[in-house]
Amino acid sequence: MWRANTQLGFAAAADDDALAAQRASAASLFGELEQLMTRSRADYTLLWRALADVADAAADAGDGGAADEALLAAVAPSFYEPLHERLQPAWTAWLRKVGAHRSLVSARSRVKGAGVRDGSVVGR
């Protein structure tokens, strides 16, 4: 069965309660995404591929107008026509939400991959 939490790139939950909360959050994000994709006439395959770069775009962008433009630029090739101005705030808000979740996942992966555990460096 397809799970929104793994498709959206969330890290594995530590326990059943965390997993339930994670699945609820992912389901909510996915519900919002489905609506945005439909209203925006997005190519689903291209959008899923572009979402892989959202965490990096969110981390690099910071806050403000230029950050919003960077987030939208990361997914812009996914749309069949230019994204309508009225949909841009909804997309930016959604991308920030999913980017925050995925940034946590990316950070955990980098720390784990670097041999760091519990704040201390593990010998290789």
- Assign an overall shape: globular
pLDDT < 50 stretches: 104-124
What's the domain count? 1
Give the tally of β-strands: 2
Our count of helices gives 6
Largest sheet: 2 strands, antiparallel
Q: Portion of residues in helices?
A: 55-70%
Strand order of the largest sheet: 1-2
Alpha-beta content class: mainly alpha
Radius of gyration: 16 Å
Termini gap = 37 Å
Estimate the strand proportion. Answer: under 5%
What are the secondary-structure elements, in order, as H or E? HHHHHHEE
Quick check: average pLDDT?
73
Structural features:
124 residues, mainly alpha, 2 strands, 66% helix, 3% strand, disordered C terminus
Describe this structure in words.
The chain is mostly helical and 124 residues long. It contains six helices and two strands. It has helices spanning 4-7, 16-40, 44-51, 54-61, 65-75, 88-113; strands spanning 116-117, 120-121. The radius of gyration is 16 Å and the shape is globular. It starts with a helix and ends with a strand.
